[in-house]
Amino acid sequence: PSSVPPVFTFALRGYMRTFYHLGRLTLNSFKSYTPVLSPQVSRSVPKVLVRGVTSSLVCQKGGSPAWGSKKHTAKRKIRLKQLALEMMEPEVEAQLAPLRAKVKEQGDKIRQLKADGAPDVDVKVEVQLLKARKKDLEDMTLKLMPADTFDRAKMSDLIKRRFFYDQSFAIYGGITGQYDYGPMGCDLVDNMLSEWHKHFIIQERMLKVNCSILTPEPVLKASGHVDKFADYMVKDVKTGECFRLDHLIKQHFEKKMSEKKTTQEEKDIMTRKTTLLDGMTMAEMDAILKEYGMKSPLTGNDLTDAMEFNLMFPISIGPSGALKGFLRPETAQGIFVNFKRLLEYNQGKLPFACAQVGNAYRNEISPRSGLLRVREFTMAEIEHFCDPDDKSFPKFASVAHVEMNLYSACAQMDGESAKKMTIGEAVRGSGLSSLGLLQTTSEMETLDSYLCDRSYIIGNEPTQADTTVFQALAPHLPLASHLPHACRWHRHLSSFTDKQQKSFPGEVNTVDELTGGRKKGLVANETLGYYMARIQLFLHKIGIVPRKLRFRQHMNNEMAHYACDCWDAECLTSYGWIECVGCADRSAFDLSQHTKAASVKLCVERPLKEPRMEETVTAVTDKGLVGKAFKKEAKAVTDALANLSISETEELDKTLTAKGEAEVAGYKLTRTMVPSVKREQKKVHVEEIIPSVIEPSFGVGRVFYSLLEHSFRVREDDDKKTYFALPATVCPIKVSVLPLSNKPEFAPFTNQLADSLTEKNITVRVDDSTGSIGRRYARTDEIAVPFGVTVDFDTINNTPHTVTLRERDSTEQVRMPIEEIPETVKRLADGKLLWSEVAAKWPKFTQQETGVTK
Ligand code: AMP
């Protein structure tokens, strides 16, 4: 119709494409553009907030098409390769060996640079090259793996047809990076989260909060998000189209490199620049943009200078617009700012954990890959607060046996694949336990891997532990060449004289003391290891395929400066390895930041072993004057004064004496308000510590999408029949009731059965349509209904009344009395009864005896 603006006609014509917008949604600036980006999707959020930004999410060459675009609907098979976790065939290994060697060579080079104390910038350059080599290895590994055909188009078709989820505002053409969940998607997510609730909140006795999404600016200023949560971008000077700068440069280079006229030398320069992009400053990227005269890939127009684009959605709270804020980019901050109350609720005791599930908002410049990079998504986050000096976990023994696929930073540097080991081994480490013996090859190898870990610190100062190990190795010299880490570490230590070695910091331990005490493992501490294991158990429980799950450790350069250790749970999908859950030891960073910014102590009192005498200096206030001057805020002023450290109070005293006034937490105070300071010697029984935080952070949409891919199946006998083999516990509908005929005699049986199932809170779907039973089964399979009950002529005609119960994945059917159904299905759906047990107990059903009502 003529009244419909062009953009709507465009949408109505059925071209559902990616729409870009400039921060705000301006309909007339909609464009149909899907950026063709390089395969690696990683966000270059600066160091302070590097929170899972380097997912090894690999999308297809040419970028992921927008939902509903032609590319998506094209019947194109994606061959999902199985992962590199199992031992590989020798011939595959042979092909990977040179790439592994290249990664290792680069890893060694970096270690050496660090050992030699090379400048940071040189190390950074080499790290970028290491990343490029790692990616080549990963790509080749995936290429050589046995094919596991996965048809993404087929799955997308099913998801769309049965409305698991779809693009938001689809009738207006849709918006990239925003999705609506339909009935199936909603229920599946709810069930996943209900399992999550049981698994973490109930089992671990966690606290829970539900905090505001509208977050005032000072909170996110303190957390570092205002200053650092940004990507770089440029705009088309005429149309205002926005481009993520690193993507644009990569895309430009890819195009240039494919042109015949580009010389090899030019290609090499571009390759090098591409590998360095991740660590580049905005000015450096801008210089490249200008050097190559890059234009808008859509219009050929000029581009603006590079600018920082903060990924948070700015808002103004209230009608005046005076209170600035943001939609929260993560749920975690809500927990940190409530720490004091949570601690009180927990009777002042550590450790404790608090969880929050809710939406977070990130204004991604180029959202893509369906649900994997969106602008609005649900997070389920846990903040576990513990003593910074004791990160042991009382229940650790209960998970110590859990076997995990761990892809350590060291293995990534050496070009090795992920390794299976128990979390017990990974945390406790077996390295030093055998040091006293060091006789067998495996003991030497264990030592080697311990020293591999240790080799990260060789750029820094060694400690007395290194001296001890160095001496213990003396009888084993020269070290065998297959112990590369030990050799390198030994070489490094040899460069110190005896005297220097004796003066290394740290306690002087004997080998036995080292081996008997806490040993260095791959995973920093028990609490972190415990959560990693629990994350894995949860993901397995909801249906993530074990061999498609690994934990990848952040390399030093990826990790935020304050983090001690960080592991991402990554799921293998047709887009590559996707970071679904981040699990980090964030030390005391967040609470310290908010303590400083809000002038409210977010700390815990820890009893001292022995009481000690301490000097205290407190500001003495004239309460009357302070009350008169600050009225309602007088308490905040006295609290701020009470929270000052000794040195801050002394500084305040000096300033008040010198100038007559001073500012504390934004309040102007005069000498008369604070006439003096009081010095006292006090016997103290407790000390104040800022707790460490271990944070498992789930991206619910990513887990949900991975789960769909992992459970998607096509029936062998009919490739039109597709279904999701989800575990019954998370299936939206647990059972279907299918009367074979719509004759009136069937209705009482069908209705009574459905009612008794509902009474037990079992979700049920009655399908009394006229379609063949086979078609009706296929329809319920598509929406993952795990069990189906068929009421047939034998049910009506024979007593006792029996029905068939069918299991979705095997399509096996058994015959059982109708009254047994509710309890059996309930136990099956709760995971308390296995189908194999049901199949063993009841006779197998082949066909009914009667075909008409008697
Ligand atoms: P982060 O705070 O960046 O470590 O993110 C925590 C988790 O949120 C990640 O492990 C992802 O699963 C998820 N996540 C982060 N960004 C996005 C996004 N743009 N779209 C969907 N999920 C995301």
Automatic annotation (TrEMBL):
- SUPFAM superfamilies, alphabetized: Class II aaRS ABD-related, Class II aaRS and biotin synthetases, GST C-terminal domain-like, S15/NS1 RNA-binding domain
SMART domains to which the protein is assigned, alphabetical: WHEP-TRS
Reaction catalysis annotation: 2 ATP + H(+) = P(1),P(4)-bis(5'-adenosyl) tetraphosphate + diphosphate; tRNA(Gly) + glycine + ATP = glycyl-tRNA(Gly) + AMP + diphosphate
**What is the E.C. number?**
6.1.1.14
Protein origin, superkingdom: Eukaryota
Entry keyword Zinc-finger? no
Can you provide one Gene Ontology molecular function annotated for this UniProt record?
A: RNA binding
Q: Chief subcellular site?
A: cytoplasm
Tell me the Gene Ontology biological-process terms attached to this UniProt entry. Answer: mitochondrial glycyl-tRNA aminoacylation
Q: Does the keyword DNA-binding apply?
A: no
Q: Where in the cell is it found?
A: Cytoplasm
Supply the InterPro entries for this chain. Answer: aa-tRNA-synt_IIb (IPR002314), aa-tRNA-synth_II (IPR006195), aa-tRNA-synth_II/BPL/LPL (IPR045864), Anticodon-bd (IPR004154), Anticodon-bd_dom_sf (IPR036621), Arc1-like_N (IPR053836), Glutathione-S-Trfase_C_sf (IPR036282), Gly-tRNA_synthase/POLG2 (IPR027031)
What family, per the record? Belongs to the class-II aminoacyl-tRNA synthetase family.
Its subunit composition reads: Homodimer.
Could you tell me what this protein is called?
Glycine--tRNA ligase
What species was this sequence derived from?
Meganyctiphanes norvegica
Source organism phylogeny:
Eukaryota, Metazoa, Ecdysozoa, Arthropoda, Crustacea
